[in-house]
Amino acid sequence: MIVKVNKLDFYYGKFQALIDVNLEAKKNEITALIGPSGCGKSTFLRCLNRMNDLIEGTRTTGEIFVEGENILDPNTDLVKLRKKVGMVFQRPNPFPLSVFENIAFGPRVHHLAKGKELEEIVRQSLEAVLLWDKLKDQLSRNALTLSLEAQQRLCIARLIAVKPDILLMDEPCSALDPVSTQRVEELMQILKQDYSILIVTHNMQQAARVSGFTGFFLLGKLIEFDITGRIFTAPRDRRTEDYITGRYG
Amino acid sequence: MKNLFEFIVEKAIFLSGAASIIFVVLIFIFLLKEGLALFGEVNFFAFLFGQNWYPISDPPQFGILPLIMGSVFVTFGAIVIAVPLGLAAAIYISEVAPHSIRGFLKSGIELLAAIPSIVLGFIGIIFLAPLLKNIFHLGSGLTALAGSIMLAFMALPTIVSIIEDAIVSVPRSYKEGALALGATHWQAIYRVTIPAAASGILAAVMLGIGRVVGETMAVLMITGNAAIMPTSLLQPVRTLTATVAAEMGEAVSGSSHYYSLFAIGIVLFIISFIINIFADIFLHRSKAMKRRKK
Ligand SMILES: Nc1ncnc2c1ncn2[C@@H]1O[C@H](COP(=O)(O)OP(=O)(O)OP(=O)(O)O)[C@@H](O)[C@H]1O
Ligand SMILES: [Mg+2]
């Protein structure tokens, strides 16, 4: 188990957004999180790299073990944690810098490489997201001029450059068209050989297609967590069944 | 009745709008007419690149290069001081300072803009000049550097508020992306936020330069007023503006000296025009980013 969550409660001020969440995610597996809007999927994901710390007045209790370490421990080194647990956002958010600088950002921040070595990391990262052939002669191009799909791939490459273990993806395809979505899904299948992925999605077909395990959230609670095939064919909970058959909207 | 009223209001507004443009054009024409009259007697290049400004000796010499260099030295010094300070202040206000004191700091900086330049000139003469004199062992502290320091304070409010605006309009998602990659707050600021705010920062620099080049009173008081070619910031200099202000009273109307001061006016006009164009271009780019954010 690469991620193990025990009795997680999360509060925005007085509002409890996550209620007693328990979940285990396997290494080199894609774990999908589904549920209606506002049920706490993004909040949960942002607990795993402690991005919620940036929001004032939030409070987290319980335990989250990432590779055996409780990251809710106040002594956790956030720089190391976020190097290990990378995040892809809903809207592609490349920096307004060149393609090269976008990918070099992480290695530079973590002092991983310089010069030739850095160029090699940039090449490998772009290859990993299947962008190298397209962009190898355009490394100085401003990343904001790329297509949305290429931007999202670049954001994934940017993470890969710091060699994380876990990729958190919050609706990574929701800004993309169906063809781009399919290609990014194919990319996820390749990436899962080297990384453990947790993906939030609104799209149940997507969850069914890409993931090995699926969790269903409702109103801050993890209602059901199981092998994806079982969630979609034989859910144990009525509410899960209602959701996947479209009765929640 | 109502229509007549609207008609009058509409025309009045139109006239006041047109008036501002007409005045600018009139001023420019006047400036051209008086300034260009000089070039009947004085060669244009001898004016612009001549190294001697002796307007009342016999024969007079009207080389303004020492004055241009005086302005350049003072401006350069002021910008070198004001931009790093302004950038640091803007970063502190927008990214570091607790919310509760942000407004307080901003009004403090705006207050700086409200200090009359003559007061800054006084402070310069009384405190700054003696201080520089002692530090650098100079004959007199009234130097280009003294002018640069005082003007830096004058330019600071403009620079801080424009940079602050530029930083605040950088999309949050950039910074989130950087932090999610494990960057520290500072790394996110200097590697992502600052480059993203570059156009706004350049606009601030341009407007700061405009503010400094045009300033007259304080530089007249504290730069030592020697129209010689400067070679260092520790020398007395005289700027374009200070020359006009100092000599307008004594120049005989209709003389070459009189026309030469208007010609200096034209040079100043052109300089500010160019600076404003650049500032405008950068501000536009910065606004374009702000729109993208929404
Ligand atoms: N910064 C915040 N401050 C206060 N409440 C918040 C904040 N962010 C989210 N919430 C609330 O927490 C709950 C869970 O939000 P969250 O964004 O995690 O939902 P989600 O499942 O990701 O929804 P969506 O599918 O729309 O992205 C919602 O009720 C939301 O209103
Ligand atoms: Mg969400």
From TrEMBL, chain A:
Pfam families the UniProt entry points to: ABC_tran
In terms of InterPro entries, this protein maps to: AAA+_ATPase, ABC_transporter-like_ATP-bd, P-loop_NTPase, PstB-like
Q: Where is the ABC transporter domain?
A: 3-244
SUPFAM superfamilies attached to this UniProt entry? P-loop containing nucleoside triphosphate hydrolases
An example GO biological process term is: phosphate ion transmembrane transport
One GO MF term on file is:
phosphate transmembrane transporter activity
Name the UniProt key words of this record, in alphabetical order.
ATP-binding, Nucleotide-binding
Do the record's keywords include Lyase? no
What's a GO cellular component annotated to this UniProt protein? Answer: membrane
**Matching CDD domains:** ABC_PstB_phosphate_transporter
Write down what this protein is called: Phosphate ABC transporter ATP-binding protein
TrEMBL record, chain B:
Record's InterPro entries?
A: MetI-like, MetI-like_sf, Phosphate_PstC, Phosphate_Transport_Permease
Q: ABC transmembrane type-1 domain: from which residue to which, for each copy?
A: 68-279
Q: Which organism is it from?
A: candidate division WOR-1 bacterium RIFOXYC2_FULL_46_14
Q: Which Pfam families match?
A: BPD_transp_1 (PF00528)
Q: How does this protein lie in the membrane?
A: Multi-pass membrane protein
Compartments, as annotated in UniProt: Cell membrane
**What name does this protein carry?**
Phosphate transport system permease protein
Cross-referenced Gene3D superfamilies? MetI-like
Please give an example of a GO cellular component term from this record.
plasma membrane
- Sequence intervals crossing the membrane: 12-31, 67-93, 113-132, 144-168, 188-210, 257-283
GO MF annotation list: phosphate transmembrane transporter activity
**Has keyword Transport?**
yes
Entry superkingdom: Bacteria
Instruction: Tell me, in a sentence or two, what this protein's role is.
Output: Part of the binding-protein-dependent transport system for phosphate; probably responsible for the translocation of the substrate across the membrane.
Which SUPFAM superfamilies has this protein been placed in? Answer: MetI-like
Q: Name one GO biological process term.
A: phosphate ion transport
Keyword line: Cell membrane, Membrane, Phosphate transport, Transmembrane, Transmembrane helix, Transport
Similarity comment = Belongs to the binding-protein-dependent transport system permease family. CysTW subfamily.
